[in-house]
Design goal:
- Helix content is 45%, strand content 22%.
- The chain is of the alpha+beta class and 350 residues long.
- The chain folds into 2 domains: 209 residues, tt1808, chain A; 124 residues, no CATH class.
- The protein has a 6-stranded mixed sheet, sandwiched between helices. Strands 1-10-11 form a 3-stranded mixed sheet, with no helix packed on it.
- The chain is elongated, with a radius of gyration of 32 Å.
- The two termini are 43 Å apart.
- 27% of the residues are buried.
Length: 350
């Protein structure tokens, strides 16, 4: 297995030229059967490898748990027009008919009514031999599967107890005839996926949940959108209420003081008592109005800022100190413009 990794942190699908060496041995290759023209009986524990029918045992917990997590992550991140499957039986060649743990293929059927061949395949390696895993990857790529990934799972004993460790995640390289390890912090980018998928999401529960949440946001899931709107409304209402109360209090105190001074000056000729009374009344009225206006404006701005921060957190958009400073500096109209940009382009407008 090759442990070399590309210098960048996003793993793209290989071009067609990358499959130039992935051919069946021999001078010519007979026409391959459709992917759904099975030799072994579906829904059984049978597979055919190199012309031999073999019995495939059900998975143990480390393998089955990892396979479940992979399907969970892929389901939320499959691009429109594609569909995900687990244990999908595929006629890989005339002498090979087996299934991978999870895969993604184009929806619908081809011109002859057969389902499309999977484009991405995922295998879990636990007790399976490396030679068997390599052979299956070669056959899949030769059949036309664009990308084949394997997630290694192993059981370790620590302190007398068994612990399951997942990783690394590797991808088959036809040009190298071997596996290349993917960095856990990097991303898998492919047309089959709604958004780049973090490699760590295939081996860590927290990142798996994050990947599913981001996939649901990207797909416009109505429940997620409802929660986002509710969070924004809550922040807006709370900010408006707090701002109103604070503005009213500050305005009252300031208005009272200003009214007193103004009333004292204007009422000098009319008498101290009359001026004080008039100034107090006028100051209280002006202060209330000014406090109400300032409080509402501040409340709207606070609510918009809280809504933008919640939206950025849901979209995994980093709020750098510069961006936070920009949020604090924007007025209500500027905040509304930024929020519309985030909702439309799902990225920060620099």
């Amino acid at each position: 297995m090759s442990t070399d990794t590309p210098p960048d942190s996003v793993y793209l699908a290989p071009g067609l030229s990358g499959l130039a060496g992935a051919r069946w041995p021999g001078v010519s290759e007979p026409e391959l059967p459709p992917p759904d023209q099975n030799v072994v009986e579906p829904e059984t524990y049978q597979e055919m490898i190199d012309g031999q029918i073999i019995q495939v045992a059900p998975s143990d917990p480390p393998h089955a748990d990892c396979q479940f997590d992979i399907a969970y992550v892929l389901r939320a991140n499959v691009a429109d027009g594609y569909v995900g499957s687990t244990e999908l039986l595929t006629r890989v060649s005339r002498d090979n008919n087996f299934a991978t743990d999870a895969c993604i293929r184009k929806q619908g059927s081809d011109a002859e009514g057969h389902r499309h061949l999977e484009e991405l395949s995922f295998e879990v390696k636990h007790t399976q031999s490396q030679a068997s895993l390599d052979k299956r990857a070669r056959y899949l790529v030769r059949r036309g599967v664009r990308r084949v990934f394997a997630i290694h799972v192993r059981t370790e004993k620590r302190g007398g107890a068994e612990h399951v460790k997942a990783g690394p995640v590797v991808e088959w390289s036809a040009s190298q005839d071997g596996w290349k390890a993917l960095k856990s912090g990097s991303y898998i980018k492919d047309r089959c996926l709604r958004r780049p998928l973090k490699v760590r999401a295939l081996i860590e529960a927290v990142e798996a949940d994050n990947a599913v949440a981001r996939g649901l946001i990207e797909s416009g899931n109505p429940v997620v959108l409802e929660l986002q709107t509710h969070s924004y409304d809550q922040g807006y209402d709370q900010g408006k209420s707090d701002g109103y109360d604070q503005g009213k209090s500050d305005g009252y105190d300031q208005g009272k003081s200003d009214g007193y001074d103004q009333g004292k000056s204007d009422g000098y000729d009319q008498g101290y008592d009359s001026g004080k009374s008039d100034g107090y009344d006028q100051g209280e009225s002006d202060g209330y109005d000014r406090g109400t206006s300032a409080g509402m404006t501040r409340g709207i701005q606070v609510g918009l800022r809280q809504g933008i921060r919640a939206f950025c957190q849901a979209l995994d958009i980093a709020l750098t100190p510069a961006r936070d400073a920009r949020l604090d500096a924007l007025d209500a109209e500027g905040l509304r413009t930024l929020l519309r940009h985030l909702r439309t382009y799902r990225s920060w407008d620099e």
